[in-house]
């Protein structure tokens, strides 16, 4: 098992999404107050390594689709991501 290291933006998004239910991109924008372009890049990075899933599933999300797309944590990584947040 590898140790997951998150950047500040990644940790902020993981906290905002949480581990129980999917959150819409518009809710995440309101909660984090991140720039939409930065958030889209960070979400795509988390999805590319498999930590995050979108509903409906897409490989990458565009800035136009991001506010109406739901995001949830990949259940396979929940334990490791919780540990990464404690270390952050």
Strands in their spatial order, largest beta sheet: 1-3-2
For the record, the CATH class is: Mainly Alpha
For the largest beta-sheet, the strand count, sense and barrel status come to:
3 strands, antiparallel
Beta-sheet strand percentage? 5-15%
Shape: globular
H/E series, N to C? Answer: HEHHEEH
**How many strands appear in the DSSP assignment?**
3
CATH topology description: Arc Repressor Mutant, subunit A
Q: Can you describe what's shown?
A:
There is one protein chain. The protein has 88 residues and is mainly α. The protein contains four helices and three strands. The chain has one domain (8-87): Arc Repressor Mutant, subunit A (Orthogonal Bundle). Helices cover 47% and strands 11% of the residues. Strands 1-3-2 form a three-stranded antiparallel beta sheet. The longest helix is centred in the middle third of the chain and has 13 residues, at 36-48. The protein starts with 7 loop residues before the first helix and ends with a helix. The relative contact order is 0.25.
């Amino acid at each position: 098992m590898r140790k997951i290291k998150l950047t500040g933006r990644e940790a902020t998004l993981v906290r905002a999404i949480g581990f129980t239910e999917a959150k819409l991109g518009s809710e995440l924008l309101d909660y984090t107050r991140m720039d939409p372009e930065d958030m889209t890049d960070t979400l795509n990075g988390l999805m590319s390594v498999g930590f995050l899933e979108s509903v409906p599933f897409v490989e990458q999300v565009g800035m136009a689709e991001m506010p109406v797309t739901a995001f949830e944590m990949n259940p396979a990584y929940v334990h490791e991501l919780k540990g990464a947040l404690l270390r952050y």
